[in-house]
Structure formats: C-alpha cells, structure tokens
Amino acid sequence: MKQNESPADRAFRAEVRDWLGANLSGAFAHARGLGGPGREHEAFEERLAWERHLAAAGWTCVGWPAEHGGRGATVGQQVIFHEEYALAGGPARVGHIGENLLGPTIIAFGTDAQRARFLPPIVAVRELWCQGYSEPGAGSDLAGVQTRAVLEDGRWVVDGQKVWTSLALEADWCFAVCRTEPGSSRHHGLSYLLVPMRQDGVDIRPIVQLTGTSEFNEVFFDGARTDAANIVGAPGDGWRIAMATLGFERGVATLGQQVGFRRELDGVIELARRTGAVDDPLLRDRLTRAHMGLEIMRLNAARTMAGVAAGAPGPESSISKLVWGTWHRELGELAMDVLGAAGMIADGAPYDLSDWQRLFLFSRSDTIYAGSNEIQRNIIAERVLGLPRERRGTE
C-alpha cells in the first residue's frame, strides 16, 4: 500500500511516525507494547494517561469528521495511523470501544443532542464505554436477547444480564441491546440504549479466564435507569443499529491489528529456528501457510475498506472477522507445537504464563467474540452469496 500513497499520505505517515517516536519516550517509554487481548490488566492507569496524551495532541478519533472532534482523515490515512501505531509499539488503546464502535454509530445514527453529549468525552478519553450485547442465552445468536427495558416517567428501566462484557469494570457507559416491546421475539422489538454504568442497579462481576485475567465480565441490570433520550434510533430499531456497530468494529483498525499479527508470526518463526522446529517439514509447511494466510487477510481487509469509505460496512465485513479469528487461533496452536513439551510448563508459580501460552489460551476466544465463526458463515452464505436461509427454531 505504501507504493500507492500520495504525497499527502506520505507526509501524513511521516507526521504520525515522528510524533509517536518523540512521545513514546520518557514517562511513556515503558508503556510500549503493554495491554491487548489477554493482557488488559497491564498498566491500565498508565495506558489511560497515554491515551489522554494522544487526545491532547489530536491523535484520537482520527477518522471522525472534524466537526465531531476528529481529523477527518481519509480511510487510507486511518490505515496509515493504525499501522504506524502498531509498528511503534503503542500500548493497547483503552478507549477502543468508544472510539471505534459507539462513536461511529452515534455519528451515523444519533441525534444532534447525542452527538454533542457523547462524542466530545470519547475524543478526550474522559468517558470509557463497554458493549452490552451477549447474554447467557444469547451469545452468538444475538436475536435471542432477553434483557428488558421499560419506559417509566421519562426514563428507561433496564433489567437483565449481559455476559462477556469487555472492560466493564473500567467503563463509564454501556451501549446495550434491550428488548423494549413486550411479547416480541428475534430481531423485532429490540432497542439500542446508552446506559450509565456507575449507578445503583448495575452489578459487575469479573470472569476469570484461562489466562488468569479478567477482561470479560458479567453485568447484571436490576432496575438500572437511563434517560428516555438515550436511545439510538427509534424504539424497535435496535437490531439494525447493533449490526452497524459490528460493521464499524471490523473497520480500519483491523489493519493495524494485522501489524501485531505480523510481529507475533515473526516471533513464532524465530522461535522455530531457535528450537529447531523449523527443520520439521510439517511445521515448516504450517509456518509457510500462516505467512500466506496473513497476506490474504491483509488483501481482503484492504478490499473491505471500500465499505468503510461508503459508510457502515456491509455483511462482507463478516469475511474479515471469520478469517482473522480463525488465523489467530491457529497461530496460537502453531506456537504451542513449535514449543513442544516446554509449552506445558508455566513460567512461574502459581500461574505465570509466557506470551506464547497466553496467545494460545486467549486466541481460543477469537473465533467466538465479536461474532462467532458459525454466525459469520451464516451471514456470508445468506447475505453475501445469496444462499437459502438456515432453518432455525420451529421453521
């Protein structure tokens, strides 16, 4: 992609690279590479301070329109920013959910009052967000949501349970899909509500994962309240809004994610050389296939950027989620096979994991969160390829 960059894009790349080089130093030098999936417990306060430093210099929400606090960067420039950020070893972003999911949704579907209230704190990293989609009985099948919300005296009253809620303990707000029409089922009768997390009636319980960390949480709503105006779109339009949010989640930031994948793959290759596993023809073939898969992933992601440029990405974005989730899980498995028996031994007591062990364990979830492989295949089959719908329920 660099070969096709315009002079303006090359200048933008140089600006981003120079700024990151100058600022990921001093007090922030130790933040390089911290955080990320399976490691969100690392230096959260330091990463929050770094992100507010980014905001003060105008480097958050770079793709948002200028009138909403962004830089109005083109899709190509957004890709450049995420690539350079990953190459510089920038720490995992704590405001990712607000910046890349909720913010674009509010810009596309919110009211002027909602944009004025919610966008500036996201840009400044003054308010953090979490996503209230999955439930114990509605994970991959989001249409099965049972969390209820009833409008009483000008406020929505929310009751129900969400699960696998990333970073809920740190979040100030949650965008939650709730059933607001009694007796409705499936995609009908759902609404997209913005709910404050720091109130009576919200109980957050961390879930200890295979990695020993707790990025994911259970969230119980028991009479939690939010203003009637804190609904995005019309009542009953929640499914459409929620699907658009998932499309934004699979936008340009995934190209920066792939720089991290490249670093991990390079590390596995070096590990194979160091342990002698590279001499095994079967492992060498898998390493080659992993390299080819990453190149295919990048080309496919670049192709789907056309959907981002046109607004909310379409169902084709499910291809990207299916490809990267499967590839990353397989990379974790490959890392364990390269390690051999040594991969079974913890780095220290009681449960200190190596980076490769953490990659293997956490990447099991990559094919589930943000849309499971099963659901992505159905979306691709039905909405992209035009195949008959899968039989569901009593159909």
UniProtKB/TrEMBL annotation:
<dbReference type="InterPro" id="IPR052161">
    <property type="entry name" value="Mycobact_Acyl-CoA_DH"/>
</dbReference>
<comment type="similarity">
    <text>Belongs to the acyl-CoA dehydrogenase family.</text>
</comment>
<dbReference type="InterPro" id="IPR006091">
    <property type="entry name" value="Acyl-CoA_Oxase/DH_mid-dom"/>
</dbReference>
<dbReference type="InterPro" id="IPR009100">
    <property type="entry name" value="AcylCoA_DH/oxidase_NM_dom_sf"/>
</dbReference>
<dbReference type="InterPro" id="IPR009075">
    <property type="entry name" value="AcylCo_DH/oxidase_C"/>
</dbReference>
<dbReference type="InterPro" id="IPR037069">
    <property type="entry name" value="AcylCoA_DH/ox_N_sf"/>
</dbReference>
<feature type="domain" description="Acyl-CoA dehydrogenase/oxidase C-terminal">
    <location>
        <begin position="236"/>
        <end position="385"/>
    </location>
</feature>
<dbReference type="InterPro" id="IPR046373">
    <property type="entry name" value="Acyl-CoA_Oxase/DH_mid-dom_sf"/>
</dbReference>
<dbReference type="Pfam" id="PF00441">
    <property type="entry name" value="Acyl-CoA_dh_1"/>
</dbReference>
<keyword id="KW-0560">Oxidoreductase</keyword>
<dbReference type="InterPro" id="IPR013786">
    <property type="entry name" value="AcylCoA_DH/ox_N"/>
</dbReference>
<dbReference type="GO" id="GO:0016627">
    <property type="term" value="F:oxidoreductase activity, acting on the CH-CH group of donors"/>
</dbReference>
<dbReference type="GO" id="GO:0050660">
    <property type="term" value="F:flavin adenine dinucleotide binding"/>
</dbReference>
<feature type="domain" description="Acyl-CoA oxidase/dehydrogenase middle">
    <location>
        <begin position="130"/>
        <end position="222"/>
    </location>
</feature>
<dbReference type="GO" id="GO:0005886">
    <property type="term" value="C:plasma membrane"/>
</dbReference>
<keyword id="KW-0285">Flavoprotein</keyword>
<feature type="domain" description="Acyl-CoA dehydrogenase/oxidase N-terminal">
    <location>
        <begin position="7"/>
        <end position="124"/>
    </location>
</feature>
<dbReference type="Pfam" id="PF02771">
    <property type="entry name" value="Acyl-CoA_dh_N"/>
</dbReference>
<protein>
    <submittedName>
        <fullName>Acyl-CoA dehydrogenase</fullName>
    </submittedName>
</protein>
<dbReference type="Pfam" id="PF02770">
    <property type="entry name" value="Acyl-CoA_dh_M"/>
</dbReference>
<dbReference type="InterPro" id="IPR036250">
    <property type="entry name" value="AcylCo_DH-like_C"/>
</dbReference>
<keyword id="KW-0274">FAD</keyword>
